[in-house]
Design a protein that fits this description.
16 helices, alpha/beta
């Protein structure tokens, strides 16, 4: 069995070497030629898994060690007998940590998190942990998630607010939706010029979801006009060729690392390997060696803190901001350096876990 892995997925190679021949490559080096004789692929967001990559491949299983599947043509995979799995929620605690750290970094002298109202758009894995932690820190929290509200029992649906309410009440607004352009609730450019004009306060806007959920040009205009007080951007339109003007204007600006905790990476790897185990069982293959490899690698899914205290928000988000902003002296280098910073990031501990 031939297995290809993105070389930047941590903790995954050793368990897989027990069941096949493993080749580790950069994401952009996983080509149709590489895939021609590949049975199993483990990837991240920088490898587009579509007909072009898979047309002449014998691949039957793709695991992405990410929460998102934007880079995988799920329809093509389904129609061609390829099982595709992701790791939903793997980095949710890390992203919640990032958001609360960004809000803390924006506080003026004398202010505290208890003074603030946080609006959360998208109350899935990330949004629900963020809401729980923020409430525990004394913040007032407003939730917006039309698809979830629609599916909820009437009593639970009352927990959600329309986006217009967030625009009126919030000191900070953080978005945690997938990027969609179709359907009843598209999220592409959800925060656009019209949204910014509707604001009654001047909130901090935080994007640690997908670059396209906010309109870059509208966001820059909103900053210039004082419609918003600040932005914290981790996910950018056009990555890695990011907007330099927005980079210069943002107080918090990072290279798509909001979810990059050690515990999050362990969760992601453990989740996709367990999905492979189930797939092997379903297809009549014995996963015993894989299971032993997972055990030997110590890939137990880390716990998530129920609540956090202010002293647990010790992540230095401004140090990560400096890493990216320091590249502005040589703008032409930013796309390559953006990827380098992302791929060589020192994984931080989540709240409730200790640094190495």
């Amino acid at each position: 069995m031939k297995i290809v892995i993105d070389r930047n997925i941590p903790f995954i190679r050793e368990p897989l070497e027990r069941i096949g021949e493993v080749t580790a490559l950069p994401g952009d080096a996983i080509t149709p030629e590489v895939m021609a004789e590949t049975d199993i692929l483990f990837t991240r967001t920088r490898t587009r898994c579509d007909e072009n990559l898979l047309r002449n491949s014998r691949c039957r299983f793709i695991g992405t060690a990410t929460i998102g599947t934007d880079h995988i043509d799920l329809g093509y995979c389904k129609n061609h007998g390829i099982t595709a799995v992701n790791a939903p929620g793997c980095n949710a605690p890390a992203v919640a940590q990032y958001v609360l750290s960004a809000i803390s970094a924006s506080l003026r002298p004398g202010e505290s998190l208890r003074d603030k109202t946080l609006g959360i758009i998208g109350v899935g894995n990330v949004g629900s942990i963020l809401a729980r932690w923020a409430k525990g820190l004394g913040m007032h929290v407003l939730l917006n998630d039309p698809p979830l509200a629609e599916k909820s029992h009437p009593e639970k649906s009352r927990l959600f607010s329309p986006i217009t309410h967030l625009a009126e009440e919030c000191d900070a607004i953080s978005i945690h939706t997938p990027l969609t352009k179709d359907g009843p609730y598209p999220t592409h450019h959800l925060l656009d010029a019209e949204f910014y004009r509707s604001l009654k306060r001047t909130p901090l806007i935080i994007n640690a979801a997908r670059g396209g959920v906010i309109d870059t040009e509208a966001t820059k205009t909103a900053l210039t006009k004082g419609l918003i007080s600040d932005v914290a951007i981790d996910c950018w339109e056009g990555e890695p060729d990011i907007d330099l003007s927005l980079l210069s204007q943002a107080t918090v600006a990072t290279p798509h690392i909001a979810g990059y905790s050690k515990e999050g990476k362990i969760r992601a790897t453990a989740m996709v390997l367990d999905a492979l185990r189930l797939w092997m069982e379903k297809n009549g293959e014995n996963p015993a060696q894989l299971v032993e490899g997972i055990r030997q690698a110590g890939l137990e899914i880390p716990t998530v803190a129920e609540t956090i205290t202010p002293d647990m928000l010790d992540y230095d988000i401004m140090a990560d901001t400096s890493m990216l902003k320091n590249l502005m002296d040589n703008p032409a280098s930013i796309p390559g350096k953006f990827e380098e910073l992302r791929n060589t990031y020192h994984l931080r501990p989540e709240p409730g876990h200790n640094a190495d």
